[in-house]
Design a protein that fits this description.
One of its GO terms (cellular component) is plasma membrane. The protein is about 65% helix and about 0% strand. It is mainly alpha-helical and about 180 residues long.
């Protein structure tokens, strides 16, 4: 393992992070705004396809994370900050799985709505009851708000590290930014 691998995330992790982040931001924005958008926009199939994409990419990211360890947290971080970082990352992964799964359950009710991946192929429905589909709908909405709050905490923590503490935490996940090797 090279010194740079010890201080920054791998290229694969960085690519997955920013790709999932962009897709999540789009889908969260759409989720919160869809009732006020014109009906003829027909963006729901795109929202669903992006949700399934987020689910698949999150599974890939978890696999990547298991085989490519994250860089160590800076030594100056207090114990509570380390715990908060680990808990928030765990919750982010949980939300990136639970939100698409709840949306998939919602779309799989006994009167299923069309579910395709960008019109290229059909996505099979989950075998859920009407009650489970309704639960998926409620969970999807609640998880969306909770995910937005957690995302704001995540971005706020990254900005805190970059602008206030002035350490390399944010740079480790930023493409094209060099991260100096830690002192020997």
């Amino acid at each position: 393992m090279t010194d740079s691998a010890l201080v920054r995330y791998s290229r694969g992790a960085i690519l997955l992070h920013w790709l999932i982040a962009a897709l999540l931001i789009f889908n969260l924005a759409y989720g919160f705004l869809h009732d006020s958008l014109p009906r003829d926009w027909r963006i729901m199939p795109i929202h669903k396809a992006i949700g399934i994409t987020v689910l698949v990419l999150t599974l890939a990211r978890i696999g990547w994370r298991l085989t490519h360890p994250a860089p160590r947290l800076p030594a100056h971080m207090a114990g509570w900050e380390r715990t908060a970082a680990h808990v928030s990352h765990f919750l982010l992964y949980a939300f990136m799985l639970a939100i698409p799964l709840s949306g998939w359950a919602m779309a799989s009710d006994p009167n299923p709505r069309p579910l395709t991946w960008f019109g290229l192929f059909d996505i099979p429905y989950l075998p859920v009851s009407e009650a489970m589909s309704e639960f998926g709908h409620e969970a999807h909405e609640i998880l969306g708000y909770a995910a937005l709050a957690l995302l704001l905490v995540h971005v706020g923590a990254a900005f805190r590290h970059h602008f206030l503490i002035r350490d390399e935490v944010m740079a480790r996940m930023t493409p094209g930014v060099r991260v100096p090797a830690p002192p020997a």
